[in-house]
Amino acid sequence: MLIGLSVIATNSTPPGRYFSSSGVVCQLTLPNREPLTSTRFNNPERFSLEQLKTNKRKLEAIRKLRPNWNNYDGEAFDESLINEIEKIITDLDYQPNIFPTGRGTVQIEKYINEENLVEIEVSNSEIFAYQVKDGREIEKEISVDEINSLISDLYA
Amino acid sequence: MKLILSFQISMPDELPLTIADDEYLYRGITELNWDYENNRPSSATFKDSKGVSVDRDNYREEKDCIDFLLSKISFFGICKIQTQKVKELNAIARYLPEENNIYHSEIHDSEEKIQLKGSKPKKIRDASEVVFLK
After folding, report:
1. Are residues A76 and A151 in the same domain?
2. Are residues A64 and A29 located together in one domain of the fold?
3. pLDDT digits (tens, 9 = 90+) for A17-28
4. Sign of the Cα pseudo-torsion (A104, B128, B75, B42, in order)
5. If you measure CA to CA, which chain A residue comes closest to B105?
6. How close A41 gets to chain B, by Cα (Å)?
7. For A150, which DSSP code?
8. What ipTM does this complex have?
9. Which residue of B has its CA nearest to A107?
10. Does A83 touch chain B if contact means CB atoms closer than 8 Å?
11. Does A18 share its domain with A67?
12. For A93-136, how does the pLDDT look when each residue is reduced to its tens digit (9 = 90+)?
């Protein structure tokens, strides 16, 4: 356990130097490598806790919307749908933007630019994706398991 | 002595049944559908189960159209799209007046289908112009 912690510490301090519990400075030579990429937390573009918090706050606001919330007879949102969206966004590598629709569905969208984007409309009965990848448009029904890869593919 | 001022926006009795191609269609935007990242409405604004409600302009001044929408409700923003653009995107604009709104119209996917889905809401958003923002 102690050894593991030391190695992690050396990755974030000047290379090859750490302190042992006895106070003796030890030298360790590590190969010069890129930062670890085994978790989404190591890539600042990938995981944004702040954006996730913002999305969860927005989701709570959507949960509380009453019929006619958009002044155009907008439908209220099913509790189970909001819970499902919360689960989905928590597991995403890249945080999207979320928006309510007048038909009681939630839109998850991510834009890199106008040539690379995805809009996913989630309801209790269907998940429908509109994707533009390198300028090519695709519209299709997808499963919940495909949402993360569809968004992550924008960064591939 | 109290002076009470009241404003009444006059409405015509009837409008032509067909919306002309050069008429603009106005749609109110809620703040939850405002995309702050890109400073524009999300395409979710144009997703509705009963057709996307809009007000046709019937050649009113833009300010009058905005005032008319805001006289009923406090929208975060208002955008407009020309009927011709709606047609070019293979959607249709239907004139469906209501008792309290003679300008009420709806954008439908097609003659057969009401709900806009897939690429159309985004394309309509892209072709629209924001004319009022709080």
Report:
1. yes
2. no
3. 333 444 444 444
4. positive
5. A72
6. 22
7. H
8. 0.89
9. B44
10. no
11. no
12. 999 999 999 999 999 999 999 999 999 999 999 999 999 999 99
